[in-house]
Every structure is written in structure tokens, then in C-alpha cells.
Amino acid sequence: MATPVTEPEAVRVRVAGKVNLSLRSGRRRADGYHPLSTVFQAVSVFDEVEATWAEPGAFTVRVLGEQAALVPEGEDNLAVRAARLLATTWGSSRPLGAELVIRKAIPVSGGMAGGSADAAGALLACAVLWDIDISPDELRVLGAQLGADVPFCLAGGTALGTGRGDELAPVLSRGSYHWVLAFSDGELSTPAVFGKFDQLGLGTDPLEVPAEMMNALVSGDVQALSRCLVNDLEPAALALRPELARVVEAGCTLGALGSVISGSGPTVAFLAANEPAAVDLSVRLSSEGLCRAVKRVSGPVPGARLVV
Ligand code: C5P
Predict the structure, then answer these.
(1) Residues 6+ apart with CB under 8 A from 164
(2) CB of residue 34 inside a 6 A radius of ligand 1
(3) Between the CA of residue 158 and those of 154, 169, 218, 272, 278, what are the distances in Å?
(4) Given strand 258-261, what is the order of strands in its sheet?
(5) Across the strands, what pairs with 129?
(6) I need a labelling partner for 263 at 20 to 30 A (CA). Which of 9, 37, 80, 270 fits?
(7) Distance in Å, CA 308 to ligand 1 centroid
(8) DSSP the chain
(9) Closest residue (by CA) to atom 12 of ligand 1?
(10) At a CB cut-off of 8 Å and minimum separation 6, what does 280 contact?
(11) Is the pLDDT assigned to residue 195 strictly greater than 60?
(12) C-alpha triplet 105, 232, 272: angle, nearest 5°
């Protein structure tokens, strides 16, 4: 690691949220995690993480955006934990510090990996800020220590996640898909949704790679993709938030090809046939007044990237 003669300017990283096109989960493992087979797609809703030099040993974070008040700004902030982890495992003997600013657009506790995205953004921003020579693969290994979705947030695109969802293989995907996201007023905690999943006695065994979905993605067939959207956590999310069923029903009635609750929810992702259909659906869904906000996005998009 080189010692900078003058401290560089702030480093900014843009990082996308994700939708799980398919999420199959087995039963709870002894370590508390669930074995997954999930297809992630990074979509165009982005958080931005900015890192600047701070006093050695000082790690701070400021969160900006509509839902900023819902994000902890102390030591348990995932981006702060990410910066500390990078400093302690990859920093030189010289103590490091960072001041982080997060501009949030990905919903908080919305099932779109918002916290993991910020951790991924902080890892990349601090690696560049501190001039740490770490490869993308090594960054992903570090990311997996912070959360199961962090490796995907670094990589982006479309990928199959196995293990806890952190063992990634890229998925061939043709074209761009248009989604309408229904952001919910409340949050859902991922451990609570997995807890409900256990309580309901759910869990697919064995976990299969969704071959039909892989074929739909490689041929860019949006109709076929809409027929194989699936999330094993959906019954658990609906049990905790029964009103989500009305959102799902409304989107499908208003012209979505298909719908899926993203991850542990409560964000609902509606797949549209094309961009004009997504515009039409987002206008109609907003006017129903069933959710906090409606956002049109497309995917796949890249993962964590420097803003130059
Ligand atoms: O890895 P991460 O910290 O994002 O996971 C949050 C929680 O979600 C875990 O503590 C666990 O309760 C649950 N989880 C799980 N199985 C997974 C991923 C997450 O049970 N594969």
C-alpha cells in the first residue's frame, strides 16, 4: 500500500439494489442460515457511498435520503463495519480511518439488499481511498463475512447464488428487463421472515437450479421469465404483512406479466412486457395509493462501480 503524499479527494461508488427472480430455500442449518438457490438481478435503483480520509482509527457515517432516519449511524452500520474490516484485514501497520456518506435510494429493510449494497460500496470506496491492492475476488470473500448478499452487490449483473446466497456463478442473460417496484410503507426484518418460514415448516429439498428460468434469461424471453418468477419466502412475508397480497393483486390486474416479492420483502417487483408497459403500469399502480412509492427500474445493471 502506497502512502499518499497528499490525501486524495473523496472517492464515490454507486451500487445497485437487487431483485431475486427466483429464491428457493431449504430448511434452517445449524448455523442459523438457510441453504439457498437464488437468481439475483441487479436493478437500476442506486445508493451512493462516498469515502474521505479521517483521523486514524476514526470511522464515521452520515446517511442522507428519505429513509435516512431508519439507518443506524453508529458502529453497527454495515458500511462502517465494512470499512473497519477492510482496514484491519488489508490495511498496512499504519492505522486507517474513513468518513463515509451514504445517499440512500434503495429501500431500507425492503428485500433489495440495501444494507449489503452500502457495505459493498464502502469496501470498494475505501479500497480505492486507501490505495489497497485487493482483487475483485478477494473483495467478494471479505464481503461474504459481512452479509450473504454483499458478494452479489459487488458483482451485479445476473447471477446464481448458492450456499447462503454468497457463492456466485454468473448467469447468461440477454437484453434488458423492465420492472415496476412497489415500495412498502413498513419494513420487514430478514431474520423475522426466515423465522416465520421455519415456523410454517417451509423449505424445499433438494434445491434445484431453475433450468426454465436460465433458458428464459439466455433467450431474453420476458413472457417465459414471467412464468417462472418464484420466492419460497413469499408465504412467510405475506403471513407477517397480509396487506401485501392486495399490492400483488393490484399490479397483476393492472397489466404486469408477473410478480415476485423481492428477497424477504416487503418490496414487490412487477415484470412488465416492455418499457412503455412499465410506464403505464407504474402510473396506474401509483394512483391506487397502496404503497409508499412506485419506481420503474431496469436490469441487469452492474454492481459496485466508481463514480468518476
Ligand atoms: O447475511 P445477512 O446478515 O444479510 O443475513 C441476515 C439474516 O437473514 C441472517 O442472520 C439469517 O437470519 C437470515 N438468512 C438466512 N439464510 C440466508 C441468508 C440470510 O437465514 N441464506
Answers:
(1) 33, 34, 35, 36, 144, 148
(2) yes
(3) 12, 9, 11, 18, 20
(4) 258-261, 268-272, 177-183, 293-299
(5) none
(6) 80
(7) 33
(8) -PPPSS----EEEEEEEEEEEEEEE-PPPTTS---EEEEEEEEEEEEEEEEEE-STT-EEEEEESTTGGGS--STT-HHHHHHHHHHHHHS-SS---EEEEEE--SPTTSSS-HHHHHHHHHHHHHHHHTT----HHHHHHHHHHH-TTHHHHHHBSEEEEETTTTEEEE----S-EEEEEEE-SS---HHHHHHHHHHTT---SS----HHHHHHHHHT-HHHHHHT-EETTHHHHHHH-TTHHHHHHHHHHTT-SEEEE-TTSS-EEEEESSHHHHHHHHHHHHHHT-SSEEEEEEE--BSSEE--
(9) 191
(10) 255
(11) yes
(12) 55
Tens of pLDDT, residue by residue over 140-158, are 999 999 999 999 999 999 9
CA 70, CA 118: separation in Å to the nearest integer?
A: 14
List beta partners, residue 166.
none
Which band of pLDDT confidence, cut at 50, 70 and 90, is reported for residue 84? Answer: very high
Contact 269, 260 (CB under 8 A): yes
Q: Is 148 in the pocket of ligand 1 (CB under 6 A)?
A: yes
Q: What are the distances in angstroms from CA 21 to CA 62, 77, 93?
A: 32, 27, 43
Answer yes or no: are the C-beta atoms of 155 and 120 closer than 8 Å: no
Torsion of CA 82, 71, 15, 211, to 10 degrees: 90
At position 15, the amino acid (one-letter code) is: V
What pLDDT, on a 0 to 100 scale, did the predictor assign at position 1?
47
pTM > 0.70: yes or no = yes
Instruction: Kindly give the distance from the C-alpha atom of residue 133 to the centroid of ligand 1, in angstroms, as a whole number.
Output: 29
18 catalytic? Reply is yes
